[in-house]
Amino acid sequence: MPAKYGPGPWSIFVPLFGIAATVMVLVWTLKFRGGLAFRSRNQELIFNVHPVLMVIGFIVSSGHAIVVFKILPARRKAQKAVHLLLHLVALLAGVVGVYVAFKFKRESGLKDMSSLHSWFGMATICLYGLQWLLAFLFFWFPGAAMYTRARIVPWHVFAGLVIFLMAICAAELGILEKLTFLERAKAVRIFGEEALLVNFMGIAILFFAIAVGLCLFL
Amino acid sequence: MPAKYGPGPWSIFVPLFGIAATVMVLVWTLKFRGGLAFRSRNQELIFNVHPVLMVIGFIVSSGHAIVVFKILPARRKAQKAVHLLLHLVALLAGVVGVYVAFKFKRESGLKDMSSLHSWFGMATICLYGLQWLLAFLFFWFPGAAMYTRARIVPWHVFAGLVIFLMAICAAELGILEKLTFLERAKAVRIFGEEALLVNFMGIAILFFAIAVGLCLFL
């Protein structure tokens, strides 16, 4: 069965804003923040892995996974496989991203799970994993009866959108939190080049989410 | 014409989480932060008006305005009037809320419009005003032809939901920003009573948004 709907005029904006956010998070961490490292005496390099995994691995992947049925010209089975795989990539990136955040906090002697960013993020990752597992069991293997699937689909879509929007909100919260810390520590100048880049990354992520919505809506 | 759909089983959660957020923002500003004032030597009292207007006036009002068609047992015309009025209350509260934020910043000698919270908030208010004005002209007075209205409705709903979700995101960003400032200034203890109250207010606002979504979805 081919895709139910062909790609609409807004489809192009999903990869476009996805690329914009990807480039911005890389320029930020590599050019402004000194690069990435899993092990380093400079804990900031460990931290940098967190936004890279979350923006590229989690947000951009899961956004594309959501619109696969609308923009990938392929058979239904292939679309489902790509949907499942992209969400798995996002989930794994998200889990490693959370691990890196804890590692950074522990090695820096900071308290963790205290801010709304961490609460939103942790809830998002847990719900994301649960949603993926349930969807795998019901829609892929072993798979439920057609009648059950049809009843579950609207809930799968609704829960998926809520989780995606929570992920977007968590990302914006993380961006604001980190930038506030850096500005307060005088490591970044308010309205400086880096501050604007980071805020525009937040705007790109918002536009990415709106593009995903437009793709589903059209 | 009566309401197209009667209230679903989730309708009760919209006022419930609305009340929860309202109580929390009042307890926070009145009990923990010293109260409210439009004019005071203590600029923090001026600031406090901002979250109160934004949470109760803007978020809670606009969320209820969105679900009016689903939960208010009345004729279509009456539902529309309440929808319009609640959104107007939200818009006015939002505009005054923004004014108060600028007043606080100016009187405290702080830079404004530098954070993602202010960017999201300003964009939300501007789009909200535009959406209200266009909807008033097309759906109320003078009103467009039925054919045009039918074509516009899906865009009105989509734009309205995007703006509502931006408002939710702006609120969460504001909560995190203010709490981070207070914690850094040692005015609030991390994991202390007040910090937990403020974060739970953020969770109540998230649940309020999910309840609005469930109301529309069911």
TrEMBL record, chains A, B:
UniProt xrefs under Pfam families: Cytochrom_B561
Cross-referenced InterPro entries: CYB561/CYBRD1-like, Cyt_b561/ferric_Rdtase_TM
Domain (Cytochrome b561) ranges: 13-217
Q: Which GO molecular function annotations are given, in alphabetical order?
A: metal ion binding; oxidoreductase activity
Alphabetized, the UniProt keywords read: Electron transport, Heme, Iron, Membrane, Metal-binding, Transmembrane, Transmembrane helix, Transport
Cofactor names from the entry are: heme b
Q: Which Gene3D superfamilies match?
A: 1.20.120.1770
Q: Which domain of life is it from?
A: Eukaryota
Asked if Disulfide bond is a keyword of the record, the answer is no
Which subcellular locations apply to this protein? Answer: Membrane
Respond yes or no to whether keyword Transmembrane is given for this record. yes
Q: What topology in the membrane does the UniProt record assign?
A: Multi-pass membrane protein
Q: Name one GO cellular component term.
A: membrane
Looking at the UniProt entry, the stretches that span the membrane are: 12-30, 50-72, 84-102, 122-141, 153-176, 196-217
| Name this protein carries in UniProt | Cytochrome b561 domain-containing protein
Give the organism the record lists.
Amborella trichopoda
